[in-house]
Amino acid sequence: MKITVNGTAQETAAETLDALLIEQGYGEAKVATAVNETFVPAALRLEQRLNDGDRVEIVAPRQGG
Fold first, then answer.
1. Which residues are within 8 A (CB) of 62 and not within 5 positions of it... i.e. 6 or more apart?
2. Dihedral pair phi/psi, residue 62, rounded to 5°
3. pTM here?
4. N or C of the chain: less Cβ packing under 10 Å?
């Protein structure tokens, strides 16, 4: 299916947000996620189904000073 991840159109076989994170190489990383501009808590990622055309944002924390 075609989705947009962090502003970039992509093809994915992932059916859930959790599977997409694994596919994208995030695995167990601490990240914030949103689907179609709605925040998805880590505990709900396994249940969050993805659909063709969805917009996904994955934000990893950064250290800075």
1. none
2. -125, 145
3. 0.91
4. C
Return the structure tokens found at 48.
Answer: 């969050």
Calpha distance 56→4 (Å, rounded): 6
Residue 51 to residues 9, 14, 63, 64, Cα–Cα distance (Å): 13, 10, 33, 35
Residue 55 tokens read as 């917009």
The per-residue pLDDT for range 11-36, each reduced to its tens digit, is 999 999 999 999 999 988 999 999 99
Amino acid letter at 13? A
> Within a 10 A sphere around the Cβ of 50, how many other Cβ atoms?
18
